[in-house]
Model the fold of this input.
Amino acid sequence: MQSASDRHEYPAHWEADVVLRDGGTARIRPITVDDAERLVSFYEQVSDESKYYRFFAPYPRLSAKDVHRFTHHDFVDRVGLAATVGGEFIATVRYDRIGADGAAAPAPADEAEVAFLVQDAHQGRGVASALLEHIAAVARERGIRRFAAEVLPANTKMIKVFTDAGYTQKRSFEDGVVHLEFGLEPTERSLAVQRAREQRAEARSVRRLLAPGSVAVIGTGRTPGGIGRSVLGNLREAGFTGDLYAVNKAFPEDLEELDGVPAHRSVRDIDGHVDLAVVAVPADRVPEVVAECGEHGVQGLVVLTAGYAESGPEGLERQRELVRHARAYGMRLIGPNAFGIINTSPGVRLNASLAPQMPRPGRIGLFAQSGAIGVALLSRLHRRGGGVTGITGVSTFVSSGNRADVSGNDVLQYWYDDPDTDVALMYLESIGNPRKFTRLARRTAAAKPLVVVQGAGTAPQGHAVRATRLPRATVSALLRQAGVIRVDTITELVDAGLLLARQPLPRGPRVAILGNSESLGLLTYDACLSEGLRPQPPLDLTTEASAEDFHAALAHALADETCDAVVVTAIPAIGEASPDDGELAQALRSAAATGPAKPVLVVHVELGGLAEALSAATSTAPRARTAPPAPAAAEAEAEATGTGTTGAVTAPAGTTPGASGTGPTGSAPAATAPTTPTGTPPAPAAEPGEPAERSRTSGDAHLIPAYPAAERAVRALAEAVKYAQWRREAADPGKVPEHEDIDEKGAAALIGGLLARGQGLTLGTEETSELLGRYGIPVRRAVPAPTPDEAVRAAGVLGYPVALKATAPHLRHRADLGGVRLDLADEEQLRRAYAELAELFGAPQQLRPVVQAMAPRGVDTVVRAVIDPAAGAVLSFGLAGAASQLLGDMAHRLIPVTDRDATSLVRSIRTAPLLFGWRGSAPVDTPALEELLLRVSRLVDDHPEVVAVTLEPVVVAPHGLSVLGASVRLAPPPARDDLGPRTLPLY
Done:
């Protein structure tokens, strides 16, 4: 690619795909000598005004000298990048290293002049902002710390690109030119700007897929059956509101329509614009189809075709080429091997999937990598017969298949500010980028609940992402720290979604239990205790309880200030006064309306009629957003109607359907205004775009989730309680304290000197103590004692009493093996202990004995920090010994840790009571322990070269603590992709 005179090889790692402001994609890559014709063609399409802004004078064409200059780079002092779509340039940026006098200069000069040129047709798409991020990252890599730019005052768009980037900058005006100078180190503001742009761009890219104005199904069979023909039928029956086209290369030339849909032999033959193409052709024909779509201006693809990474190495390479091909044309891609996508919004009604029935409109967003799991989720949320819920509908559904391009991260970006989604449910076979997912999950969870099941899969085949080395349990703990509601099964996923979609969040763990079965109430009580809730004694209404009894008891419980949530239990009743199922459903719903700020759940057993009443509502979408379904969809829903085992308490079948968008059999809602059993109308539904929290407590929020087992209901409630607590704490995340005694510069100098010895090393005892001491973490001195006499001399220096420890790898931290002798008060005891250890474990060379001054008695703990290449820096804490090693009782937090994080970290382990005076023992000094955690966090955060720290044991006494053992490993830090420019995963 480069001539022999170039000083560096072509930097392929600078190539990247990016999502632009409008949701389209572009490829950014270095400009080479082979780009001369592309550069000339690009320049010819730029307006005279833009050329004037670039060169400060009329500049109609590039000279041969200009072309040579702009295409020959050494990739060190002179660098040019281009943004391309379809292989053609749409924008360029370059820098030239300069000295203090503004003239060209080689390194070590650390300033460069930067200039942009964007094709007019692509201005306003955020191309320049993306190029600035990438050229800045390249410059930092080459030792450049500042950019300078000169801009004409009238070029307000380019001035805005620089000023909005968030870098620290200086601005001056001289000789009619605006001079800008800014540092390239990422700042808090520049990262915030970058991530806000990332969110908007990725959300729009998904929105273009989920809300297209036109869809072409490519691969539609001429005869009924087959994937393409099925998807076309599903789109028609769902009532898709946009233009629909059937495409098949084998169509007869005179065929104009198929099932009432315009038919074409190629997408090129379609006169109108096509936003989305659903591809269902054999794998060997997909490249041809992608090229036709790209040339026709299609914005996105859903590839249902299989035979890619899931089929082996050849399929993997085919998949990589598919992604490269699609992105080259600026298209995003769902799949391949996808099940499809769904959007129930009345303005879209898109069912571009293999699901034969359109789900009910609702407030839950679904994402599943697996098509089979996607089918199961849709089935449970849609059907009544045996379904988990008959009330909760879907806003959007994405089944990503091989997840080659669009991933769960992209869909999270879309759901974050989607006004139609209140709850997000995700089935993830893997988390390809834990650091980014955790960041996005934390932001999303602060606005709406995010429930996740993580399967046992690996990273998507073909993704060039770093694999995490963290245990699965650690990743789960970090997700919970980010506000993710982490569940283990699909059943739990839907159970939690059902509760969170239609009920308010509980204010605390106090639970009232009432019902007509004492035994079921006790089961519910025990389940609450098992889940860490605080249940009140169950109220038994007896099996003869009437609907009025249930209504009065529930209303009273909701009015009780000592209650945060209510679980109602119901079994088949006996006696003349016993309510029928519809009457009971009405009573519970009307009572729940008296306390709309508290969640209500129902546990029912063998109540078929009640289950049908619980499933009477067919939508959870706000009434202002609902619309009658297309006739075909209504018929499909009517056919699917059956008896549910889990649903929602609402008006019984045959009465006004209330807030549902469709009636019990899928018919249009009655015109009569719905009322509660007491005659008062329900609260109005939330307006579109209002916060999810408000919409869950208005209108059809009186629909009460019901479960066929107490354990399932209580588990869902417990997750809601924990999530509500996280929301409250997230509002005040705490702060990272400043410690005046920390010597950050001294530690940096020490680390630099140590790393000069090699690329990675474990520090010795003295070096470890010195480095930790710079951060106010003293380590008790341990003196090697290769002979009994040296042990005695060491004890004389340290002072009695002392401890004698064997530090051989197989004995370290294994007090249970007898390799430690404590409280040795004098020389005689020390020599006797030394002899015992030698007799038990062998010669001193095998024991590696050390002598250490005794520390105050307390609880032995362990503190660890590690930098994971995928998840980032993680701080872990637990009790030393069996609790952490055998039971895995460790708690984890992402670094940097705040004071609130440190407090919760200490209290998160199951064995935490041992620190707080369990069974009459003395409570230990947890404030000192929290300060130690904060200091370790600061050390790793300030110096990413510290890739691993272990403090074990840390003996926490009633007053103070002692670090008895420590190890530190240094290495060049792994690259942080979250601090670099925005990019899509590479292939």
Residues 735 and 898 are 5 Å apart (CA to CA). The mean pLDDT is 84. The longest strand covers residues 88-98.
